[in-house]
Task: inverse folding
């Protein structure tokens, strides 16, 4: 079945530590890939996106993500986490099927907690 | 400016009430979206408007009625809602409705149905 999987529901890291949030998708064609962040009670903010080309994508707030076709993954990374990064992170895809429309399909989300 | 605004921030309504949610963007985007997000769940698409015409309805019950009066405004009219409709309603917009066009989200309206 077509899906977006974020295996980690909760992650806790110490401030200053590195971070990697996992995302896997199962679509036949390479979809359009996004990472959004949502602070409590807020809307979603786009961190970065991948359509094609260089598989390492830089985003805002010091985040980056790497697309790996062989693993159907699009993991989000940050070298040094700040307390303000505590939030819910959603991986999302728009399936790359012809005739499809611009429907974002979200993973279940990963809630990040940051310890001082 | 990548701002999408939504009003009100919070709304409490009874099951017999009629209310409306409003969304506005001034980025010149021609596609607008409504999403529903239940607590601790990801957002789910409800409607897509492209060039002020409804292009996608994701089998949403008729008690939710979208309206796009012009290219900058999107409304969601609510009538005879159920308590299970309580959620965060997010509006988004994109340059066009082409697959992959980046969607920019508003802060949402938190709806409680009593």
Result:
């Amino acid at each position: 079945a077509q899906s977006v999987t974020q295996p980690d529901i909760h992650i806790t890291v110490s401030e200053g530590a590195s971070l990697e949030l996992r995302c896997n998708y199962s679509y036949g064609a390479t979809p359009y890939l996004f990472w959004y962040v949502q602070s409590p009670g807020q809307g979603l903010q786009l961190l970065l996106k991948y359509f094609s080309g260089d598989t390492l994508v830089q985003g805002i707030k010091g985040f980056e993500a790497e697309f790996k076709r062989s693993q159907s993954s699009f993991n989000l990374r940050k070298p040094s986490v700040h307390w303000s990064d505590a939030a819910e992170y959603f991986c999302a895809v728009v399936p790359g099927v012809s005739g499809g429309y611009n429907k974002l399909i979200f993973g279940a989300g990963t809630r990040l907690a940051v310890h001082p | 400016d990548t701002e999408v605004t939504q009003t009100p921030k919070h709304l409490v309504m009874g099951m017999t009430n009629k209310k409306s949610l409003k969304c506005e963007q001034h980025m010149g985007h021609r596609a607008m979206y409504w999403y529903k997000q239940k607590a601790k769940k990801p957002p789910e698409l409800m409607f897509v408007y492209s060039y002020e015409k409804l292009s996608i309805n994701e089998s949403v019950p008729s008690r939710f009625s979208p309206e796009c009066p012009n290219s900058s405004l999107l409304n969601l009219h609510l009538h005879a809602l159920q308590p299970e409709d309580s959620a965060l309603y997010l509006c988004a917009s994109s340059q066009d409705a082409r697959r992959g066009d980046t969607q920019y989200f508003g802060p949402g309206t938190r709806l409680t149905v009593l």
User: Anything to note?
Assistant: Chain B touches chain A through 30 residues (CB under 8 Å). Chain B is about 0% helix and 55% strand. The CA atoms of residues 56 and 78 of chain B lie 18 Å apart. Chain B has a mean pLDDT of 94.
